[in-house]
Amino acid sequence: MKYILVTGGVISGVGKGIISSSFGTILKSSGLEVTSIKIDPYLNEDAGTFSPYEHGEVYVLDDGGEVDLDLGNYERFLDIILHRDNNITTGKVYKNVIDGERKGTYLGKTVQVVPHITDAIQEWVERVATIPVSLNGKIPDVCIIELGGTIGDIESMAFVEAFRQFQFRVKRDNICIAHVSLVPQPRSTGEHKTKPTQSSVRELRGLGLSPDIILCRSEKPFGHSVKEKISNFCHVNPEQILSIPDLSSIYEVPVLMQNYGMIEYLNERLNLGIESFSESHRNMKKWRNLVERIKHLKYEVKIVIVGKYTQLEDAYASLLKALQHASNHLGYKASVQFIEASDLEKDTLLTNPVAYHDAWRNLCKAECVVVPGGFGKRGVEGKIEACKWCRENNKPFLGICLGFQTAVIEFARNVAKMEGAHTTECEVPTSYPVIIDMPEHNPGQMGATMRLGKRITVFKPEFNSKLRYLYNSQEKIEERHRHRYEVNPEYVEQLEKLGLQFVGVDTDQKRMEILELKDHPYYVAVQYHPEYLSRPMAPSPPFIGLILAAKEKLTSHIVNGHKLSPQAQSDYYDSDEDLENLATKLNVNESESLIRCQG
Protein backbone atom coordinates (compact mmCIF):
# COMPACT_ATOMS: atom_id res chain seq x y z
CA MET A 1 0.00 0.00 0.00
CA LYS A 2 1.21 3.47 -0.94
CA TYR A 3 0.21 6.54 1.06
CA ILE A 4 0.08 10.28 0.33
CA LEU A 5 -0.31 12.44 3.44
CA VAL A 6 -1.66 15.95 2.76
CA THR A 7 -1.13 18.54 5.50
CA GLY A 8 -1.95 22.25 5.61
CA GLY A 9 -0.23 25.33 6.92
CA VAL A 10 -0.73 29.04 7.68
CA ILE A 11 -4.56 29.03 7.57
CA SER A 12 -7.40 26.51 7.46
CA GLY A 13 -9.54 26.25 4.35
CA VAL A 14 -6.52 26.58 2.10
CA GLY A 15 -7.79 23.94 -0.32
CA LYS A 16 -6.42 20.65 0.97
CA GLY A 17 -9.61 18.79 0.06
CA ILE A 18 -9.52 19.77 -3.62
CA ILE A 19 -5.78 19.09 -3.85
CA SER A 20 -6.19 15.70 -2.17
CA SER A 21 -8.96 14.90 -4.64
CA SER A 22 -6.74 16.03 -7.50
CA PHE A 23 -3.95 13.71 -6.39
CA GLY A 24 -6.45 10.87 -6.53
CA THR A 25 -7.77 11.92 -9.94
CA ILE A 26 -4.28 11.89 -11.45
CA LEU A 27 -3.43 8.51 -9.93
CA LYS A 28 -6.74 6.97 -10.97
CA SER A 29 -6.25 8.18 -14.53
CA SER A 30 -3.10 6.03 -14.59
CA GLY A 31 -5.10 2.90 -13.86
CA LEU A 32 -4.48 2.74 -10.11
CA GLU A 33 -7.15 2.08 -7.51
CA VAL A 34 -7.38 4.99 -5.08
CA THR A 35 -9.07 5.50 -1.72
CA SER A 36 -9.14 8.53 0.61
CA ILE A 37 -9.24 9.21 4.34
CA LYS A 38 -10.15 12.53 5.94
CA ILE A 39 -8.89 13.19 9.47
CA ASP A 40 -10.75 15.80 11.53
CA PRO A 41 -9.10 16.64 14.87
CA TYR A 42 -12.30 17.65 16.67
CA LEU A 43 -13.69 15.61 19.60
CA ASN A 44 -17.08 15.00 17.99
CA GLU A 45 -17.62 11.38 17.08
CA ASP A 46 -18.92 12.44 13.67
CA ALA A 47 -20.22 15.53 11.87
CA GLY A 48 -23.90 14.68 12.41
CA THR A 49 -24.64 17.19 15.17
CA PHE A 50 -22.79 20.12 13.61
CA SER A 51 -24.52 23.32 12.61
CA PRO A 52 -23.82 24.03 8.92
CA TYR A 53 -22.13 27.23 10.07
CA GLU A 54 -19.45 25.20 11.90
CA HIS A 55 -17.89 23.18 9.08
CA GLY A 56 -20.28 23.57 6.18
CA GLU A 57 -22.68 20.86 5.10
CA VAL A 58 -22.90 17.43 6.67
CA TYR A 59 -22.18 14.94 3.89
CA VAL A 60 -23.94 11.57 4.03
CA LEU A 61 -22.49 8.30 2.71
CA ASP A 62 -24.19 5.13 1.47
CA ASP A 63 -23.79 3.42 4.85
CA GLY A 64 -25.38 6.38 6.66
CA GLY A 65 -22.14 7.89 7.89
CA GLU A 66 -22.42 11.64 8.56
CA VAL A 67 -19.02 13.01 7.61
CA ASP A 68 -17.00 16.03 6.60
CA LEU A 69 -17.84 17.71 3.30
CA ASP A 70 -14.38 16.92 1.88
CA LEU A 71 -15.44 13.29 1.51
CA GLY A 72 -17.97 14.64 -0.98
CA ASN A 73 -15.10 16.08 -3.01
CA TYR A 74 -13.33 12.72 -2.94
CA GLU A 75 -16.41 10.86 -4.16
CA ARG A 76 -17.17 13.38 -6.90
CA PHE A 77 -13.62 13.59 -8.24
CA LEU A 78 -12.78 9.88 -8.00
CA ASP A 79 -16.27 8.43 -8.58
CA ILE A 80 -15.90 6.10 -5.59
CA ILE A 81 -18.12 5.04 -2.68
CA LEU A 82 -16.55 5.76 0.71
CA HIS A 83 -17.54 4.47 4.15
CA ARG A 84 -18.01 6.06 7.58
CA ASP A 85 -14.56 4.82 8.69
CA ASN A 86 -12.96 6.88 5.90
CA ASN A 87 -13.60 9.85 8.18
CA ILE A 88 -11.46 9.68 11.33
CA THR A 89 -12.08 12.08 14.22
CA THR A 90 -10.35 12.48 17.56
CA GLY A 91 -13.64 11.48 19.19
CA LYS A 92 -13.78 8.20 17.26
CA VAL A 93 -10.18 7.30 18.12
CA TYR A 94 -10.43 8.12 21.81
CA LYS A 95 -13.78 6.31 22.09
CA ASN A 96 -12.24 3.25 20.46
CA VAL A 97 -9.28 3.26 22.86
CA ILE A 98 -11.39 3.94 25.97
CA ASP A 99 -13.84 1.17 25.03
CA GLY A 100 -10.86 -1.14 24.67
CA GLU A 101 -9.54 -0.11 28.07
CA ARG A 102 -12.92 -0.89 29.66
CA LYS A 103 -12.80 -4.36 28.11
CA GLY A 104 -9.28 -4.99 29.41
CA THR A 105 -7.60 -4.86 26.01
CA TYR A 106 -4.47 -3.23 27.43
CA LEU A 107 -4.02 -5.78 30.24
CA GLY A 108 -3.80 -3.31 33.09
CA LYS A 109 -1.31 -0.92 31.45
CA THR A 110 -1.53 2.85 31.82
CA VAL A 111 -3.34 4.03 28.66
CA GLN A 112 -1.56 7.04 27.15
CA VAL A 113 -1.57 9.16 24.00
CA VAL A 114 1.76 7.56 23.07
CA PRO A 115 1.69 4.70 22.25
CA HIS A 116 -1.99 3.75 22.56
CA ILE A 117 -3.71 6.64 20.76
CA THR A 118 -1.02 6.93 18.09
CA ASP A 119 -1.03 3.17 17.53
CA ALA A 120 -4.82 3.20 17.20
CA ILE A 121 -4.57 5.91 14.53
CA GLN A 122 -1.98 3.97 12.53
CA GLU A 123 -3.94 0.73 12.76
CA TRP A 124 -7.13 2.51 11.70
CA VAL A 125 -5.42 3.97 8.61
CA GLU A 126 -3.91 0.64 7.60
CA ARG A 127 -7.24 -1.14 8.00
CA VAL A 128 -9.38 1.38 6.11
CA ALA A 129 -6.82 1.77 3.30
CA THR A 130 -7.46 -1.82 2.17
CA ILE A 131 -11.28 -1.54 1.95
CA PRO A 132 -12.48 -1.49 -1.69
CA VAL A 133 -14.27 1.72 -2.70
CA SER A 134 -14.80 1.11 -6.44
CA LEU A 135 -17.57 -0.90 -8.04
CA ASN A 136 -15.01 -3.41 -9.32
CA GLY A 137 -14.27 -4.44 -5.72
CA LYS A 138 -10.50 -4.18 -6.11
CA ILE A 139 -8.27 -3.36 -3.13
CA PRO A 140 -6.83 0.16 -3.45
CA ASP A 141 -3.23 0.68 -4.51
CA VAL A 142 -2.90 4.19 -3.04
CA CYS A 143 -4.49 5.82 -0.01
CA ILE A 144 -4.64 9.62 0.17
CA ILE A 145 -4.90 10.95 3.73
CA GLU A 146 -5.92 14.54 4.39
CA LEU A 147 -5.03 15.81 7.85
CA GLY A 148 -7.55 18.52 8.68
CA GLY A 149 -6.75 21.74 10.46
CA THR A 150 -3.43 23.57 10.42
CA ILE A 151 -0.01 22.30 11.42
CA GLY A 152 0.68 23.56 14.94
CA ASP A 153 -2.90 23.17 16.19
CA ILE A 154 -2.93 21.47 19.57
CA GLU A 155 -5.89 19.32 18.47
CA SER A 156 -3.91 17.59 15.71
CA MET A 157 -0.72 16.86 17.64
CA ALA A 158 -1.59 13.21 18.27
CA PHE A 159 -2.17 12.66 14.55
CA VAL A 160 1.08 14.37 13.57
CA GLU A 161 2.98 12.18 16.03
CA ALA A 162 1.16 9.10 14.70
CA PHE A 163 2.31 9.86 11.16
CA ARG A 164 5.83 10.64 12.32
CA GLN A 165 5.91 7.04 13.52
CA PHE A 166 3.90 5.79 10.54
CA GLN A 167 6.53 6.84 8.00
CA PHE A 168 8.97 4.38 9.60
CA ARG A 169 6.29 1.73 9.96
CA VAL A 170 5.51 1.63 6.24
CA LYS A 171 9.02 2.67 5.02
CA ARG A 172 9.95 5.81 3.11
CA ASP A 173 9.29 4.39 -0.37
CA ASN A 174 5.63 3.88 0.53
CA ILE A 175 4.67 7.32 1.85
CA CYS A 176 4.85 10.78 0.30
CA ILE A 177 4.12 13.95 2.29
CA ALA A 178 2.52 16.92 0.54
CA HIS A 179 2.18 20.23 2.36
CA VAL A 180 -0.36 22.83 1.23
CA SER A 181 0.49 26.37 2.28
CA LEU A 182 -0.56 29.94 1.61
CA VAL A 183 1.67 32.41 -0.24
CA PRO A 184 -0.03 35.81 0.18
CA GLN A 185 0.50 38.78 -2.11
CA PRO A 186 -0.14 42.02 -0.18
CA ARG A 187 -1.44 44.84 -2.34
CA SER A 188 0.91 47.30 -0.65
CA THR A 189 3.99 45.57 -2.12
CA GLY A 190 2.58 43.45 -4.93
CA GLU A 191 5.10 40.66 -4.30
CA HIS A 192 4.50 37.14 -3.06
CA LYS A 193 5.53 36.62 0.55
CA THR A 194 7.10 33.26 1.38
CA LYS A 195 7.68 33.77 5.12
CA PRO A 196 4.38 32.14 6.22
CA THR A 197 5.23 29.04 4.18
CA GLN A 198 8.74 28.94 5.58
CA SER A 199 7.42 29.09 9.13
CA SER A 200 4.82 26.43 8.44
CA VAL A 201 7.30 23.99 6.91
CA ARG A 202 9.79 24.66 9.71
CA GLU A 203 7.15 23.72 12.26
CA LEU A 204 6.16 20.61 10.30
CA ARG A 205 9.79 19.47 10.09
CA GLY A 206 10.25 20.21 13.78
CA LEU A 207 7.46 17.73 14.46
CA GLY A 208 9.27 15.05 12.48
CA LEU A 209 7.58 15.25 9.08
CA SER A 210 9.57 16.57 6.13
CA PRO A 211 7.46 17.41 3.06
CA ASP A 212 8.33 15.95 -0.34
CA ILE A 213 6.03 18.36 -2.20
CA ILE A 214 4.91 21.89 -1.32
CA LEU A 215 1.76 23.14 -3.02
CA CYS A 216 1.53 26.90 -2.68
CA ARG A 217 -1.90 28.48 -2.81
CA SER A 218 -1.97 32.07 -4.00
CA GLU A 219 -4.27 34.53 -5.68
CA LYS A 220 -2.06 34.72 -8.77
CA PRO A 221 0.65 32.38 -10.11
CA PHE A 222 4.26 33.09 -9.22
CA GLY A 223 7.54 32.49 -11.00
CA HIS A 224 10.69 30.45 -10.49
CA SER A 225 12.34 33.02 -8.23
CA VAL A 226 9.66 32.50 -5.55
CA LYS A 227 10.09 28.73 -5.83
CA GLU A 228 13.85 29.14 -5.41
CA LYS A 229 13.35 31.16 -2.25
CA ILE A 230 10.98 28.60 -0.76
CA SER A 231 13.36 25.80 -1.77
CA ASN A 232 16.30 27.40 -0.01
CA PHE A 233 14.47 27.64 3.30
CA CYS A 234 12.28 24.53 3.15
CA HIS A 235 14.68 21.80 2.00
CA VAL A 236 12.56 20.90 -1.06
CA ASN A 237 13.67 20.98 -4.71
CA PRO A 238 12.15 23.81 -6.79
CA GLU A 239 10.67 21.20 -9.16
CA GLN A 240 8.63 19.84 -6.26
CA ILE A 241 7.14 23.23 -5.39
CA LEU A 242 3.88 23.86 -7.23
CA SER A 243 2.08 27.16 -7.69
CA ILE A 244 -1.69 26.57 -7.37
CA PRO A 245 -3.33 29.97 -8.00
CA ASP A 246 -7.04 30.75 -7.84
CA LEU A 247 -8.67 29.15 -10.89
CA SER A 248 -11.98 29.62 -12.64
CA SER A 249 -13.04 26.07 -11.80
CA ILE A 250 -11.94 23.50 -9.20
CA TYR A 251 -11.79 20.95 -12.02
CA GLU A 252 -8.75 22.76 -13.40
CA VAL A 253 -6.66 21.74 -10.38
CA PRO A 254 -5.96 18.10 -11.41
CA VAL A 255 -5.22 19.28 -14.96
CA LEU A 256 -2.76 21.88 -13.65
CA MET A 257 -1.06 19.35 -11.38
CA GLN A 258 -0.83 16.89 -14.26
CA ASN A 259 0.83 19.59 -16.37
CA TYR A 260 3.45 19.99 -13.65
CA GLY A 261 4.43 16.32 -14.19
CA MET A 262 2.95 15.16 -10.89
CA ILE A 263 2.24 11.59 -12.02
CA GLU A 264 5.83 11.16 -13.20
CA TYR A 265 7.13 12.39 -9.85
CA LEU A 266 4.79 10.20 -7.80
CA ASN A 267 5.67 7.17 -9.92
CA GLU A 268 9.36 7.66 -9.14
CA ARG A 269 8.91 8.68 -5.51
CA LEU A 270 6.55 5.84 -4.56
CA ASN A 271 7.71 3.18 -7.04
CA LEU A 272 4.20 2.89 -8.46
CA GLY A 273 5.36 0.75 -11.37
CA ILE A 274 3.71 2.82 -14.10
CA GLU A 275 5.58 1.97 -17.30
CA SER A 276 3.76 4.29 -19.70
CA PHE A 277 2.13 7.63 -19.01
CA SER A 278 0.16 7.73 -22.26
CA GLU A 279 -2.89 6.16 -20.57
CA SER A 280 -2.81 8.78 -17.83
CA HIS A 281 -2.73 11.66 -20.28
CA ARG A 282 -5.43 10.02 -22.40
CA ASN A 283 -7.73 9.48 -19.41
CA MET A 284 -7.20 13.07 -18.26
CA LYS A 285 -8.62 14.25 -21.57
CA LYS A 286 -12.19 14.09 -20.18
CA TRP A 287 -11.14 16.49 -17.42
CA ARG A 288 -9.53 18.82 -19.93
CA ASN A 289 -12.68 18.72 -22.03
CA LEU A 290 -14.78 19.49 -18.96
CA VAL A 291 -12.56 22.45 -18.08
CA GLU A 292 -12.70 23.80 -21.63
CA ARG A 293 -16.47 23.39 -21.77
CA ILE A 294 -16.89 25.35 -18.52
CA LYS A 295 -14.55 28.09 -19.72
CA HIS A 296 -16.50 28.67 -22.92
CA LEU A 297 -20.07 28.61 -21.66
CA LYS A 298 -21.95 31.49 -23.29
CA TYR A 299 -25.39 31.27 -21.69
CA GLU A 300 -26.43 31.14 -18.07
CA VAL A 301 -29.37 29.84 -16.12
CA LYS A 302 -30.59 31.91 -13.17
CA ILE A 303 -31.20 29.72 -10.12
CA VAL A 304 -32.46 30.81 -6.71
CA ILE A 305 -31.81 28.76 -3.57
CA VAL A 306 -34.22 29.55 -0.72
CA GLY A 307 -32.24 28.37 2.30
CA LYS A 308 -31.73 28.73 6.03
CA TYR A 309 -27.90 28.88 6.13
CA THR A 310 -27.19 31.28 3.32
CA GLN A 311 -24.38 33.17 5.07
CA LEU A 312 -21.99 30.28 4.34
CA GLU A 313 -21.92 28.76 0.85
CA ASP A 314 -20.22 25.61 2.15
CA ALA A 315 -23.48 24.84 3.96
CA TYR A 316 -24.81 23.95 0.49
CA ALA A 317 -21.58 22.63 -1.06
CA SER A 318 -23.02 19.47 -2.65
CA LEU A 319 -26.15 21.29 -3.81
CA LEU A 320 -24.08 23.95 -5.58
CA LYS A 321 -21.92 21.28 -7.21
CA ALA A 322 -24.99 19.34 -8.38
CA LEU A 323 -26.48 22.49 -9.95
CA GLN A 324 -23.16 23.20 -11.66
CA HIS A 325 -22.88 19.62 -12.93
CA ALA A 326 -26.36 19.70 -14.48
CA SER A 327 -26.02 23.21 -15.91
CA ASN A 328 -22.57 22.58 -17.42
CA HIS A 329 -23.71 19.27 -18.88
CA LEU A 330 -26.55 21.06 -20.66
CA GLY A 331 -24.33 23.89 -21.88
CA TYR A 332 -25.20 26.57 -19.32
CA LYS A 333 -23.37 28.42 -16.60
CA ALA A 334 -25.15 28.21 -13.25
CA SER A 335 -25.82 31.69 -11.87
CA VAL A 336 -26.93 31.02 -8.30
CA GLN A 337 -28.63 33.57 -6.04
CA PHE A 338 -29.18 32.76 -2.35
CA ILE A 339 -32.29 34.00 -0.57
CA GLU A 340 -32.64 33.78 3.20
CA ALA A 341 -35.94 31.95 3.70
CA SER A 342 -37.03 34.12 6.63
CA ASP A 343 -36.74 37.25 4.42
CA LEU A 344 -39.76 36.02 2.43
CA GLU A 345 -41.99 35.97 5.51
CA LYS A 346 -44.52 38.69 6.21
CA ASP A 347 -43.02 39.41 9.63
CA THR A 348 -39.85 40.60 7.86
CA LEU A 349 -41.92 43.22 6.00
CA LEU A 350 -42.51 44.92 9.35
CA THR A 351 -38.98 44.58 10.75
CA ASN A 352 -36.83 44.88 7.61
CA PRO A 353 -38.88 45.90 4.54
CA VAL A 354 -35.76 46.33 2.37
CA ALA A 355 -34.68 42.72 2.92
CA TYR A 356 -38.26 41.55 2.32
CA HIS A 357 -38.66 43.34 -1.02
CA ASP A 358 -35.13 42.41 -2.17
CA ALA A 359 -35.83 38.74 -1.44
CA TRP A 360 -39.09 38.73 -3.39
CA ARG A 361 -37.55 40.65 -6.28
CA ASN A 362 -34.74 38.08 -6.55
CA LEU A 363 -37.24 35.23 -6.35
CA CYS A 364 -39.32 36.71 -9.17
CA LYS A 365 -36.23 37.10 -11.39
CA ALA A 366 -35.26 33.42 -11.10
CA GLU A 367 -35.67 30.96 -13.95
CA CYS A 368 -35.99 28.11 -11.45
CA VAL A 369 -36.06 27.67 -7.66
CA VAL A 370 -34.54 25.14 -5.26
CA VAL A 371 -35.79 24.78 -1.69
CA PRO A 372 -33.21 22.61 0.12
CA GLY A 373 -33.18 20.79 3.45
CA GLY A 374 -32.71 22.15 6.94
CA PHE A 375 -33.69 21.72 10.58
CA GLY A 376 -35.71 23.79 13.02
CA LYS A 377 -38.55 26.28 12.84
CA ARG A 378 -36.67 29.33 11.57
CA GLY A 379 -37.38 30.09 7.92
CA VAL A 380 -39.98 27.35 7.40
CA GLU A 381 -42.79 29.82 6.62
CA GLY A 382 -40.52 31.53 4.08
CA LYS A 383 -39.91 28.20 2.36
CA ILE A 384 -43.65 27.59 2.29
CA GLU A 385 -44.12 30.99 0.63
CA ALA A 386 -41.51 30.10 -2.01
CA CYS A 387 -43.29 26.79 -2.72
CA LYS A 388 -46.59 28.61 -3.09
CA TRP A 389 -45.15 31.18 -5.50
CA CYS A 390 -43.60 28.47 -7.70
CA ARG A 391 -46.82 26.47 -7.74
CA GLU A 392 -49.05 29.40 -8.63
CA ASN A 393 -46.70 30.92 -11.22
CA ASN A 394 -45.63 27.71 -13.01
CA LYS A 395 -42.02 28.31 -12.02
CA PRO A 396 -39.74 25.22 -12.26
CA PHE A 397 -39.22 24.04 -8.69
CA LEU A 398 -37.17 21.39 -6.91
CA GLY A 399 -37.72 20.71 -3.22
CA ILE A 400 -35.25 18.59 -1.24
CA CYS A 401 -35.90 17.05 2.19
CA LEU A 402 -37.41 19.95 4.16
CA GLY A 403 -38.26 21.49 0.77
CA PHE A 404 -40.29 18.37 0.03
CA GLN A 405 -42.09 18.70 3.36
CA THR A 406 -42.84 22.42 2.96
CA ALA A 407 -44.28 21.74 -0.50
CA VAL A 408 -46.71 19.28 1.10
CA ILE A 409 -47.62 21.76 3.86
CA GLU A 410 -48.24 24.55 1.35
CA PHE A 411 -50.47 22.39 -0.85
CA ALA A 412 -52.41 21.14 2.16
CA ARG A 413 -53.03 24.68 3.42
CA ASN A 414 -53.87 26.45 0.17
CA VAL A 415 -55.33 23.78 -2.11
CA ALA A 416 -56.74 21.15 0.27
CA LYS A 417 -57.94 23.95 2.59
CA MET A 418 -56.45 22.32 5.69
CA GLU A 419 -56.14 25.50 7.70
CA GLY A 420 -53.18 25.38 10.06
CA ALA A 421 -51.55 22.36 8.39
CA HIS A 422 -47.96 22.07 9.59
CA THR A 423 -45.12 19.81 10.63
CA THR A 424 -44.80 18.48 14.16
CA GLU A 425 -41.18 19.65 14.06
CA CYS A 426 -42.40 23.23 14.34
CA GLU A 427 -45.86 23.10 15.91
CA VAL A 428 -47.33 20.58 18.36
CA PRO A 429 -50.25 20.09 18.42
CA THR A 430 -51.43 21.16 14.97
CA SER A 431 -54.90 20.73 13.49
CA TYR A 432 -53.53 18.97 10.40
CA PRO A 433 -50.16 17.27 11.10
CA VAL A 434 -49.32 16.52 7.46
CA ILE A 435 -45.63 16.06 8.39
CA ILE A 436 -44.86 13.83 11.39
CA ASP A 437 -41.74 12.52 13.10
CA MET A 438 -40.42 8.98 12.76
CA PRO A 439 -40.08 7.72 16.36
CA GLU A 440 -37.88 4.74 15.44
CA HIS A 441 -35.28 7.19 14.09
CA ASN A 442 -35.50 9.65 16.99
CA PRO A 443 -35.01 7.78 20.30
CA GLY A 444 -33.98 10.84 22.28
CA GLN A 445 -30.37 11.51 21.36
CA MET A 446 -29.28 13.67 18.46
CA GLY A 447 -26.30 11.87 16.89
CA ALA A 448 -26.89 9.21 14.19
CA THR A 449 -30.61 8.86 15.01
CA MET A 450 -32.11 9.94 11.69
CA ARG A 451 -33.05 7.89 8.65
CA LEU A 452 -29.62 7.91 7.09
CA GLY A 453 -27.87 6.53 4.04
CA LYS A 454 -28.92 4.87 0.80
CA ARG A 455 -32.51 3.69 0.54
CA ILE A 456 -34.60 2.28 -2.33
CA THR A 457 -37.41 4.37 -3.86
CA VAL A 458 -40.01 2.66 -6.07
CA PHE A 459 -41.94 4.56 -8.76
CA LYS A 460 -45.70 4.02 -8.79
CA PRO A 461 -46.70 2.64 -12.21
CA GLU A 462 -50.04 4.48 -12.29
CA PHE A 463 -48.39 7.90 -12.68
CA ASN A 464 -46.72 9.40 -15.77
CA SER A 465 -43.78 10.75 -13.80
CA LYS A 466 -41.34 13.24 -15.27
CA LEU A 467 -38.70 12.21 -12.79
CA ARG A 468 -39.04 8.56 -13.71
CA TYR A 469 -38.29 9.43 -17.34
CA LEU A 470 -35.25 11.41 -16.20
CA TYR A 471 -34.08 8.32 -14.30
CA ASN A 472 -34.20 6.44 -17.63
CA SER A 473 -37.59 4.89 -16.81
CA GLN A 474 -36.21 2.76 -13.99
CA GLU A 475 -38.75 1.06 -11.76
CA LYS A 476 -36.69 1.82 -8.65
CA ILE A 477 -33.75 3.99 -7.70
CA GLU A 478 -31.33 4.28 -4.78
CA GLU A 479 -30.59 7.64 -3.18
CA ARG A 480 -29.18 8.88 0.13
CA HIS A 481 -31.40 10.16 2.96
CA ARG A 482 -31.00 12.32 6.05
CA HIS A 483 -34.28 13.17 7.82
CA ARG A 484 -36.35 12.65 10.97
CA TYR A 485 -39.77 13.67 9.62
CA GLU A 486 -42.01 12.27 6.89
CA VAL A 487 -45.36 12.78 5.18
CA ASN A 488 -48.28 11.62 7.29
CA PRO A 489 -49.81 8.69 5.29
CA GLU A 490 -53.29 9.56 6.59
CA TYR A 491 -53.44 12.59 4.28
CA VAL A 492 -51.86 11.10 1.12
CA GLU A 493 -55.09 9.99 -0.59
CA GLN A 494 -56.78 13.33 0.06
CA LEU A 495 -53.83 15.29 -1.37
CA GLU A 496 -53.47 13.05 -4.41
CA LYS A 497 -57.13 13.54 -5.36
CA LEU A 498 -56.39 17.26 -5.66
CA GLY A 499 -53.41 16.77 -7.96
CA LEU A 500 -50.36 16.38 -5.67
CA GLN A 501 -49.04 13.05 -6.92
CA PHE A 502 -46.73 11.00 -4.74
CA VAL A 503 -45.08 9.20 -7.64
CA GLY A 504 -42.32 7.54 -5.61
CA VAL A 505 -42.47 5.62 -2.31
CA ASP A 506 -40.16 3.42 -0.25
CA THR A 507 -40.19 -0.35 -0.69
CA ASP A 508 -42.91 -0.77 1.97
CA GLN A 509 -44.96 1.96 0.24
CA LYS A 510 -45.52 3.63 3.61
CA ARG A 511 -43.12 6.55 3.21
CA MET A 512 -43.55 9.15 0.51
CA GLU A 513 -40.32 9.83 -1.38
CA ILE A 514 -41.17 11.85 -4.52
CA LEU A 515 -44.00 14.25 -5.32
CA GLU A 516 -44.94 15.92 -8.57
CA LEU A 517 -47.65 18.47 -9.22
CA LYS A 518 -50.03 17.60 -12.00
CA ASP A 519 -50.32 20.17 -14.83
CA HIS A 520 -47.13 22.03 -13.89
CA PRO A 521 -43.99 22.39 -16.07
CA TYR A 522 -41.75 21.03 -13.30
CA TYR A 523 -42.89 21.00 -9.71
CA VAL A 524 -40.86 18.15 -8.20
CA ALA A 525 -39.82 17.49 -4.62
CA VAL A 526 -37.92 14.57 -3.10
CA GLN A 527 -37.43 13.38 0.47
CA TYR A 528 -33.90 12.17 -0.29
CA HIS A 529 -30.79 14.23 -1.14
CA PRO A 530 -29.99 13.74 -4.85
CA GLU A 531 -27.05 16.15 -4.64
CA TYR A 532 -24.94 13.57 -2.78
CA LEU A 533 -24.70 11.26 -5.80
CA SER A 534 -24.21 13.91 -8.48
CA ARG A 535 -20.90 13.67 -10.37
CA PRO A 536 -19.19 16.09 -12.79
CA MET A 537 -19.51 13.55 -15.61
CA ALA A 538 -22.87 12.13 -14.45
CA PRO A 539 -25.25 14.85 -13.18
CA SER A 540 -28.18 13.95 -10.94
CA PRO A 541 -31.51 13.51 -12.87
CA PRO A 542 -33.67 15.84 -10.68
CA PHE A 543 -31.24 18.70 -11.36
CA ILE A 544 -31.09 17.90 -15.08
CA GLY A 545 -34.88 18.15 -15.15
CA LEU A 546 -34.86 21.45 -13.27
CA ILE A 547 -32.42 23.13 -15.67
CA LEU A 548 -34.20 21.74 -18.74
CA ALA A 549 -37.53 23.01 -17.42
CA ALA A 550 -36.00 26.42 -16.69
CA LYS A 551 -35.01 26.65 -20.36
CA GLU A 552 -38.29 25.10 -21.58
CA LYS A 553 -36.45 22.08 -22.99
CA LEU A 554 -37.83 19.31 -20.77
CA THR A 555 -40.63 18.14 -23.07
CA SER A 556 -38.33 17.80 -26.07
CA HIS A 557 -35.74 16.05 -23.93
CA ILE A 558 -38.24 13.39 -22.83
CA VAL A 559 -39.71 12.91 -26.31
CA ASN A 560 -36.21 12.77 -27.76
CA GLY A 561 -35.45 9.70 -25.64
CA HIS A 562 -33.07 11.37 -23.17
CA LYS A 563 -30.52 11.96 -25.94
CA LEU A 564 -28.70 15.12 -25.10
CA SER A 565 -25.39 16.81 -25.79
CA PRO A 566 -24.28 20.37 -25.06
CA GLN A 567 -23.39 20.77 -28.74
CA ALA A 568 -26.93 19.87 -29.82
CA GLN A 569 -28.85 22.71 -28.19
CA SER A 570 -30.34 23.76 -31.54
CA ASP A 571 -31.62 20.22 -32.22
CA TYR A 572 -34.23 20.30 -29.45
CA TYR A 573 -37.90 20.23 -30.32
CA ASP A 574 -39.35 23.37 -28.77
CA SER A 575 -42.66 24.17 -30.42
CA ASP A 576 -45.93 22.25 -30.24
CA GLU A 577 -45.72 21.75 -34.01
CA ASP A 578 -42.28 20.15 -33.73
CA LEU A 579 -43.55 17.97 -30.92
CA GLU A 580 -46.58 16.77 -32.93
CA ASN A 581 -44.38 16.06 -35.97
CA LEU A 582 -42.11 13.94 -33.83
CA ALA A 583 -45.06 12.22 -32.16
CA THR A 584 -46.21 10.87 -35.52
CA LYS A 585 -42.95 8.92 -35.71
CA LEU A 586 -43.67 7.23 -32.39
CA ASN A 587 -46.18 4.67 -31.26
CA VAL A 588 -49.47 6.52 -30.74
CA ASN A 589 -50.01 5.35 -27.17
CA GLU A 590 -46.44 6.14 -26.25
CA SER A 591 -46.56 9.63 -27.74
CA GLU A 592 -49.86 10.43 -26.03
CA SER A 593 -48.44 9.24 -22.74
CA LEU A 594 -45.35 11.39 -23.20
CA ILE A 595 -47.38 14.47 -24.04
CA ARG A 596 -49.78 13.85 -21.14
CA CYS A 597 -46.90 13.68 -18.68
CA GLN A 598 -46.05 17.23 -19.69
CA GLY A 599 -49.63 18.41 -19.16
CATH superfamily of the largest domain: P-loop containing nucleotide triphosphate hydrolases
Which CATH-level-2 architecture of the largest domain?
Answer: 3-Layer(aba) Sandwich
Number of domains as seen in the coordinates: 3
**What structural class should be given to the helix and strand makeup?**
alpha/beta
What is the number of helical segments per DSSP (H or I, 4+ residues)? Answer: 23
Spatial order of strands in the largest sheet: 11-10-12-13-21-20-19-16-17
Biggest sheet details: 9 strands, mixed
As for the CATH topology of the largest domain, it is Rossmann fold
Distance between the termini: 56 Å
Helix content: 25-40%
β-strand amount:
15-25%
Model description:
This protein is α/β, with parallel strands linked by helices. It has 3 domains: 291 residues, P-loop containing nucleotide triphosphate hydrolases (Rossmann fold, 3-Layer(aba) Sandwich); 255 residues, Class I glutamine amidotransferase (GATase) domain (Rossmann fold); 42 residues, no CATH class. It has 23 helices and 21 strands. Strands 11-10-12-13-21-20-19-16-17 form a 9-stranded mixed sheet, with helices on both faces. A 7-stranded parallel sheet has the order 5-2-6-1-7-8-9, with helices on both faces. Helix 7 links the parallel strand 7 and strand 8. Helix 1 packs parallel to helix 3 and helix 16 packs across helix 17. The C terminus is likely disordered.
Using brief descriptors, characterize the structure shown.
disordered C terminus, 19% strand, single chain, alpha/beta, 3 domains, 599 residues, Rossmann fold
